[in-house]
Design goal:
The complex is a heterodimer of chains A (194) and B (84). With 194 residues, chain A is mainly alpha-helical. Chain A contains eight helices and no strands. Chain B is an all-alpha fold and 84 residues long. Classes of the chains: A mainly alpha (194), B mainly alpha (84).
């Protein structure tokens, strides 16, 4: 007979602390919140260790708990922060379109082979920096959709918005992220001649 | 005729939902004629792929990068686990 799975809480922080922290940082973009949620995850795991069935690994189980904590955090944030205008109107000077809805200045050619970018750690750093620059509701919606891969119905519930509203938020998040990357990565590397 | 502004909105929407057939055709026709919107679409897909790469898949100990948990925080958490 297989032995029941054994948990070893005394080793958790050394074994899983860094991984869980990085996991949380990518999604929360704030060090102290990430640290808090990692701590809460371990404490919740300790309290509920009787429910660990051993059908998944210890790490998968811990990540599952952290995931719930992160979603809860997004839910609270959505409730507490005032609803933002879900359109592009409050950015008049930054709209890339002219009055007739055509590009005033179109997106630049990013050149090269995009697949090479993924191997550049600096590009990934710039990407997370740009994501951190978005407002919490834009960044959280983008994170749930593109990093977590959640479907829109799920995200609407967490963010407490309608689907139409969410589409506008995601559209705007992508547009702002795209522009941030263009300004801070592609234009700079073009100037450097690389 | 859809404007570029409409098309960018619909391109984003098409990444989250299935567009009605009329709009889908409208976008496709527009992309045949507009290199900026086609470029925009490719860049949005690149952004999506980058986000997925950062997530590192479902595998624990995947390709997550970034700073580790600080020693101070580790100490604090160990303490709280020892005296819950």
């Amino acid at each position: 007979m297989a032995k029941p799975a054994q948990l070893d809480p005394s080793e958790w922080v050394s074994q899983y602390g860094d991984y869980l922290f990085r996991y949380a940082m990518l999604r929360l973009r704030d060090r102290s919140t990430a640290e808090d949620l990692v701590q809460e995850t371990f404490l919740a795991a300790l309290r509920n260790r009787g429910t660990f069935s051993g059908s998944s690994s210890e790490s998968t189980w811990l990540v599952g708990i952290l995931k719930h904590k992160i979603t809860d955090h997004f839910r609270h944030q959505a409730r507490e922060s005032p609803k933002e205008e879900g359109d592009l109107r409050d950015l008049p000077d930054s709209s890339p379109f002219d009055a007739s809805g055509h590009w005033a200045s179109g997106p630049a050619d990013w050149g090269g082979n995009p697949a090479d970018l993924y191997r550049e750690k600096k590009f990934l750093d710039q990407f997370t920096k740009c994501l951190s620059g978005l407002s919490p509701s834009h960044a959280n919606a983008f994170t749930l959709r593109e990093i977590e891969g959640a479907d829109t119905g799920e995200i609407c519930k967490v963010m407490n918005v309608t689907e139409t509203n969410l589409w506008v938020i995601l559209h705007r998040a992508r547009m702002l992220l795209r522009r941030c990357l263009e300004t801070n990565w592609f234009e700079k590397s073009a100037k450097k001649g690389v | 005729m859809l404007s570029c502004k409409d098309v960018t909105r619909l391109l984003s929407e098409s990444m989250d939902a299935t567009l009605p057939i009329g709009k889908r055709i409208g976008v496709r026709l527009h992309l045949l004629l507009c290199r900026f919107c086609l470029r925009y679409k490719r860049q949005l897909l690149l952004i999506r792929e980058t986000a997925r790469l950062l997530a590192g898949g479902e595998e624990p100990y995947g390709s997550l990068t970034g700073e580790p948990l600080s020693e101070g925080a580790k100490e604090r958490i160990r303490e709280s686990l020892a005296n819950p």
